[in-house]
Amino acid sequence: FAICLVALLLDPSFDRKRLWNSRGVKTHLPLILSLGLVGAILLTAVLYFTAPGSLFGLIRTRPQLWAIIMVLYPVLSVYPQEVAFRAFFFHRYQRLFGKGAGILVASSLAFGWAHIVMRNGWAIGFSTIGGMLFGLTYLRTRSLAAACLEHAMYGCFLFTIGWGYWFYSGAT
Prior knowledge:
Blueprint: H1 2-10, H2 22-50, H3 57-61, H4 63-97, H5 101-114, H6 121-141, H7 144-161, H8 164-167
Helix pairs in contact: 1-4, 2-7, 4-5, 4-6, 4-7, 5-6, 6-7
């Protein structure tokens, strides 16, 4: 994260406004929330049918840890990941993959692959799909803030509903 952020800040061709463009949040908030609602329904349904005993597991068993995750996850995980996989990746590799679908797919696959450390297909698959959503938001809004909001919304929901086990083994 730090290396990516410093590289962006030292690059005169990078538009620093992208790091925190709140206008992108304001204009796209209805779409972000609408997609989030659909995503929440789908994520809940998949968990209900695949591992119903996990529903709200973190809140039921470790409510203090859940509360800590809700506060720290957006700051310590979401923002650093978005700087690296959206702002840096899109800026640095745009020439290689192009400005549209190519960079979006490459960033999504890299984001999904980065979750290989979780050692399960759910984390990789959900992260790849999430990377696609967050990348689309970043492309549409030119705002890391909008992508961060969306990422934090999905991530906090995953931990709340019960997917935390697959994204952080200490969360069960």
